[in-house]
Predict the 3D structure of the following.
Amino acid sequence: MKPPRLSSVVERRLLVNYRLDPHAAARLLPAPLRPQLVRGHAVAGICLLRLGGVRPAWAPGVLGLRSENAAHRIAVEWDGPDGVETGVYIPRRDTSSRLNAWAGGRVFPGEHGLADFEADETPGRIRVALATRDGAVRVDVTVEPADELRGSELFADTAEASRFFREGAKGFSATGSGRHLDGMELRTDSWSVEAGRVRRATSSFFDDPDRFPPGSATLDSALVMRGVPVTWGPLPAMACGQGARPAR
C-alpha cells in the first residue's frame, strides 16, 4: 500500500541547532550519506514540533490529530541521479502520540519512539522538555524570541538560516531493520521562520561524550516556526549501509 500524503499545521516548530565536528558527524551516518558542511562545520540539531490537524491530505481538518514530536537530525548530502541532494538524517524520532508510534514505519514512513513532553509557551518564552519512555533521551530547551539571529557561527543572519533549512526539507529516518531509511519531505507555500535566543539547552543525545567527544558538539542557534500549514509527502526508501538503526 502506498503511504498517504499527510496534511497538518505546524503550531510550533523549534529548531535548536548545533555545530558538529565533521568527523564526529560522519561516524553517525550510514552510507551513502555524508555531512553537509557550513563554514567548515557539520550541522545538527533537535526539531521540537507540535503538530495540529494531522490527517490524510484528502480528509477534512476536523478529523485531524494533535501531537508533540521530536527529531534529532544531522544535515546531510548524497549523490542523486541529477547531482548532489541535501536533506537531514534522523537517527531518532519520538512522539507523545501512541497512534504516531504505532503508525510510523507501518502506515507512513518514520519509526517513532514514545516520549513524555512538557511544553510551556508564552509570547516571550518557549520551553519544551521531553523524556523518552525507553530512558535513552532527555531534552530541556528554553528559547526566547529575537529580532535577528545573533552569535551563530553557522549562519550570517535569519534569512540565510531559513534558506538552509528550507532547502533541506527531505528527511531520512533510521529504521529497526538497519537496511533502509524511511523518507518524508516537508512541503509548504507558507514557509516562515523567526530567530530565537537560547536561554537553556540540554540534550542527552548531544551531551553524550561517547557519541560526541568534548568540543565536538557546540550549541549554535535557534529558530522558531509558528502557524504554518504543511504537507508531508512520502519519499522512496533509501538503501543504506551499516549504522542506520535508531539511536539509543
In short: Residues 142 and 200 are 5 Å apart (CA to CA). The domain at 6-238 is CATH 2.40.400.10 (Acetoacetate decarboxylase-like). The chain has one domain: 6-238. The chain has three helices and 14 strands.
